[in-house]
Amino acid sequence: MEQYVIKGGHPLVGEVEIGGAKNAALAILAAAIMTDDTVLIDNLPDVNDVNVLLDAIEGIGAMVHRVDRHTVKINGTNIRNMSVEYDYIKKIRASYYLLGALLGKYKRGEVALPGGCNIGSRPIDQHLKGFRALGAEISIEHGKVVAEAHNFQGEHVYFDVVTVGATINVMMAACLAEGITIMENVAKEPHVVDVANFLNSMGANIRGAGTDVIKIRGVKSLHGTQYSVIPDQIEAGTFMYAAAATKGDVTVLNVIPKHLESTIAKLKDMGCEVEEFDDAVRVVSKGNLKSTHVKTLPYPGFPTDMQPQIGVILALCKGTSTITESIFENRFKYLDELARMGAKVKVEGNSATVEGIEGFTGARVSAPDLRAGAALCIAGMAADGITIVDDIVYIQRGYEHFEEKLRGIGALIEKVSSEKEIQKFKLKIG
Ligand SMILES: CC(=O)N[C@H]1[C@@H](OP(=O)(O)OP(=O)(O)OC[C@H]2O[C@@H](n3ccc(=O)[nH]c3=O)[C@H](O)[C@@H]2O)O[C@H](CO)[C@@H](O)[C@@H]1O
Ligand SMILES: C=C(OP(=O)(O)O)C(=O)O
Questions:
Q1: Which atom of ligand 2 lies at the shortest distance from residue 398's CA?
Q2: What whole-number distance in Å separates Cα of residue 120 and Cα of residue 283?
Q3: Strands of 143-243, DSSP E
Q4: What is the pLDDT of residues 279-330, one digit of tens each?
Q5: DSSP state of 120
Q6: Where, in this chain's numbering, is UDP-N-acetyl-alpha-D-glucosamine bound (predicted)?
Q7: pLDDT of residue 137
Q8: Is the distance from the beta carbon of residue 161 to the nearest atom of ligand 1 less than 6 Å?
Q9: Distance in angstroms (rounded) separating the CA atoms of residues 33 and 365
């Protein structure tokens, strides 16, 4: 089992290049099978979730040609199998997008119920509500969602909760329904807009992505395209927060600063200096950070996928901070691990109270999920002494070349898989 071993106490300094957004890329890859033409997708992040989804896409008969680590060509002409197997699906959340893609293109599909990070109960009722509104018959059989539509018609869909997954999934399917679909109370995340732009570049007619209401005029078919995925605002935010926690000075390159507004606002609240450029953001932290209060919300609110990373900084801020997690009910598990490094935290329901401490002490901790794993690495880089992070397979789901990028800005971090390698690392760093 691979682990990260980290020697903390060094400010991170330098520039780091941000890759393509995992959560946009996964939806775009699934949507690429909706045409029989070839689609070329660029600026893909080189992460495990992308590879698992590409395997699933190959598994249903599509041609997948990996041009290089960040570029792929997909051709969905030869899809004969409408059923996506559990082995692929259990590993990732975004597998549910194959249902919207298959249903739109072939009017039927079977996809095992999705996996992903264990951060809450994560129902998909709103996806199914949307598909049913468009005329699909849905049943759950042997762990799979089975969907079939004889008459796939545009409709009014009102989402009871703001959901990124259901917004994108139903939007994809509706592109190839007959007539007009109006989706209300939709998610406005940058990746919703990116997927809409991608589908429009394939000939879809989607308007309003990025607002509360999306209107889709169904088209008969979609065509090939070339498309570059937007930068990953969560990867960028993670490096920005690593700079803040380590009293560093880091510039994230190839980002869209607009997508980072709430992330930047909180850095400023805590007393960091933030400089915005056209496609870069510089974060400088001189320490003495101030406590603040944070509540996760759908975009443009503060992202739940940045909650563990800010939790680590708040544990080092002077004073008492509160965190309210309003999207997922089980996203505070990392705080128990952080307490092993000295953090003073108390969780009650969906709120956590964090009393700032002087500094963390290195410890052995486990990554409970993807973002929490990255957050524990940030804590390790800020801590006094050695931290070992177990279960880094979660981190590898969504951060490309994480340790290389961190080493590039001065972190002392190594991926190891044995006690011997840990000892070697300790000897190397002295
Ligand atoms: C692969 C991917 O893109 N994952 C992201 C996606 O997850 P995911 O698509 O699972 O998250 P959603 O935006 O759908 O979930 C938001 C809220 O709606 C609820 N809900 C969702 C769907 C549904 O049918 N019924 C329902 O009640 C969820 O339990 C949650 O409380 O958006 C989350 C919120 O930004 C991010 O944390 C995840 O990183
Ligand atoms: C929770 C996440 O991913 P997923 O929805 O794929 O589990 C995430 O990207 O932080």
A1: 9
A2: 32
A3: 144-149, 156-158, 180-184, 205-207, 213-217, 226-228
A4: 999 999 998 999 999 999 999 999 999 999 999 999 999 999 999 999 998 8
A5: S
A6: 93, 122-126, 305, 327
A7: 97
A8: yes
A9: 40
For ligand 1, atom 9: residue with the closest CA: 165
Those residues of the chain that have pLDDT short of 70 are none
Q: Residue 325 carries which side chain, given as an amino acid letter?
A: E
Q: Check if the beta carbon of residue 34 is closer than 8 Å to that of residue 222.
A: yes
Q: How far apart are CA 376 and CA 153, in angstroms?
A: 47
Per-residue pLDDT tens digits for 347-393: 999 999 999 999 999 999 999 999 999 999 999 999 999 999 999 99
Q: What is the atom index within ligand 2 of the atom nearest the CA of 165?
A: 5
CB 390 within 8 A of CB 369: no
* ipTM exceeding the 0.90 mark: yes
Catalytic residues: 117
**Ligand 2 centroid to residue 369 C-alpha, Å:** 8
Q: What is the rounded CA–CA span in Å between residue 264 and residue 327?
A: 20
Q: What is the reported pLDDT for 36?
A: 97
* Amino acid making up residue 237: G
Q: pTM of the prediction?
A: 0.97
- Known binding-site positions for phosphoenolpyruvate: 22-23
